[in-house]
Amino acid sequence: MSLRDRLANLRPREGTEVVGDEDLFDEGFMERLELLQVVARRLFRGQYRAERKTRKVGSGLEFADHREYSPGDDIRNLDWNVLMRLEQALVRLFEEDEDLPIRVIIDVSESMTTGHGGKLRYARQVGAALAYVGLANLDRVGLTCMSGSIHETLPAVRGKGRIFRVFEFLRSVPTGGGTDLRAGCKRVAAESSQPGLTVVLSDFYDLAGAFDGLNMLRFRKHDPVAIQVLDPVEADPRQLALRGDVSLVDVEGSERRDVTLTARTLAAYAQAHQRFCEQLAASCRSRGIPYFRAPIEVPFDDLVLRMFRRGGILQ
Amino acid sequence: MTLAGWTLAQIATVFGIGAMGITGLYLLKMRRREVVVPFAALWERVTRESETRRLWRKLRRLLSWIIQLAVLAALCFALGDPRPSSWLRDPVTLAVVVDRSASMAGPSDSEPGSRLDAAMARVRAALEALGPADRVVVIAAGAEVDVSAPLGVGPEARANLVPPTPQPGEADLTGALALARNAVAGQPGPKILIITDGALDEAGLFATQTCMASTIPCVLHRVTGPPDNLAITAFAARRYPHDREHVEVLTEFANLGDTAVSVVLEVTADGVSVGQRQLTLEPGTQARQILPDLDAARARFVAKLRSPQGRPLAGPLSDDEAYAVVPPLRPYEVTLVTDGTDLFLEAALLTLDDHVRLRGIGPDDAVAGHPSLERADLVILDVADGPVPSPLPDAHLMVFDPWRRPDRAFPLELAREVRRPILTEQDRKHPIVSHIVLKDTNLARGTTFETEPGDQVLVRTLGEPIVVLRERDRGILALGFDPRQTDLPLRVAFPLLVANAVTYFERLQAGFVASVPVGSTRELSLSELGLVDEGVTRIQVTAPSGAQTTVPVDRGRVRLRALEPGFMTLEAVDGSLPGTQVDLAVNQANVAASDLRDRTDQLDLQADAMAGPPPGAAPVADDPIWMTLLLLVAGIVAVEWFSYHRRVTV
Fold it and tell me: What is the ipTM for the molecules in this complex?
């Protein structure tokens, strides 16, 4: 993105316009998804589809443990060899094989739409890519788009052919509202009957609840993954020729603030933004939540592959 | 200040309209741009730290508005084409004559420095007050006249001005004012400004008065100062007449101020101190100090005045030192024309000093062109009854009984012949016949002379001149008797008379020039300087500062001008004795030059002849003010443009 584009990105009131969704999932995007799937398959070679073992003991094929027979147990599971040798009635327990649900949460608040909606577009593409890889791995994939005022959910679907439904959902979901990760994640956790891998795509521009939402998911037995979508120009506004006396208006509707922007102020903001991101990353690391920083300059497929290589998700 | 362009009302109208427009634009500028940001909470945290600088930002905006109004005001003022009132007058061509004589080195009343410093401050004020059409020339009048700044406009003169330094001696105001008149004559608005301390000599006063009376307006500005000054007014060394190997040194100094001064006089010879005296001089008094019996081997004498406490003396320093050289011992050529019969006369001549070279020739040899007569400074004719040489030798003459033979002419006419004259009257005050008694002298015969106006009768016989001294181009001492026919040679008076006559004529010869004053051009004879002038066409002059010049010699005479006190060395470049050197002392030694009192009161000047206080400096000397205003506006706009694009004043 050239500097001129950067300049255009933060023009007053113009940054809230969202680019049209017509080319969001075009043929090029689909080709990159296919390539991504091939690469992901190599990375997951040797593993079985839908064979992620849960801690449940059930009707699987792999022996897990013995327990005392109690009336009502299926006698087919009785371990006859032990009964004959030790005269103890034990039943064999097997690990239950079940697929892991994947839920992708995309922040669609106003803060994601600044800069011609670059962050939101990027988040949608990453979300679609993750969903595609998950569907291709025969996982159940669900999507949720949320903000302070919006909460749209695509119920979990399975099968690669459902990817177009995912696209349609991402195209049609409305945007707007303030950032409220705590409330959104709480609602997702409440709605999910089965916890699973939960990927949160957001800019996390919420000083109060940026980490609380992730922690809420973790508390509800989800395996949250944080992907912070960043616009480098927003992170370091020194790249812009933005100086002098201006009125700063929050895109999510807070009070306007009259400030004088100087080089020192812009540098201070860049440092504060950097500290904010580092604090978020540190909080995630301290609780074992995988954290990825996703500048929108980086192609989405590169980001997804980096996530796969680092591990922690989709394995 | 006068507006030559738009009127004040027009300017006010334009300024009012423009100010309203600027103010409107300023108010528009005050509206802040609205910038939408995604994370205002973080911005608030960051910008909270800069709240304290908000007041300065408001002031900066206000300052920006004021600068814009100032730019507009400058433009409107430029439209008015403002001009200082001094520019509206007719152009002036000003000649500033600055006195740089020795007295200008004295302290000033108004300035911490010297009088010349005060004068230069006045010169600079005059230059800065000039309008763009005015021209000026600055002339420094010292012992010689210099142009400190050639004729040009004010800025050129200020750039080219070479500040003069005080020169020893008097100011040549005559030459300086003549140069000033020539410089401004024919120019528009000619005017002469004389800046002096008024301590002028008669020539300077006369030149000033003449300038005041001329058609070119001439005004005088006086820089005043205390008159306290102690000066050496005379300094010389001479050989004793009776002992040529020793000298005595005379120092004369005067207290020209108003307070008594204690001073130490120190005389050095070739760098060795030979005398030191401390004394106190009352105001207006002179003192004379003689250092006797000094060895003549030391040739250069320097006299210095200093304070007993070592502090510098008041007044210029140039008159606190003086220089003198010992006159060279030159032989005195005496030729005796005699028939050899007067041994008393020859014996009397042999008793004279060694520097008297005596030659004797017979009456028959005393013809024109004889080397002894050609070289002689004094010829003594004692030819008894022989004829007096005709023509007479071109030298001083001492002639005994010139009318023994009346067939030969003699400059002093014969009155009558007297038998057994009695010397009755004698001019005892005259050096030739002083300390001798002639009244009892017995004479067999004698002749008296017809005298002419100017002749000095030294001895009379019953009222008739019998010994007469005539001094015209040369001196002729005529004695109307033959020593052989008197008993005078037997008396003590005879050798004294001969010695007195020789000494008198020796003193009549061209005297040695012991020193020359600073400034004036003098024509000097090489013989007076102690140089042999035979064949000399050029001499090399080494000034006290070491600067060397070659000066032509015309018939044994040379024109010299000394500009600095000290010892000047003259060296013959050619001639019979090339390389011969003599020293010449150069002194200020001028009471008028050392007198720091203002003498211009003697001129009875009118009030309009005095220059007023220093004029105020013109606001802008070069270009029209509107041009300067436009440049100012352009400068402000350039700064604003630069700072705007550097995001300083956004």
Answer: 0.74
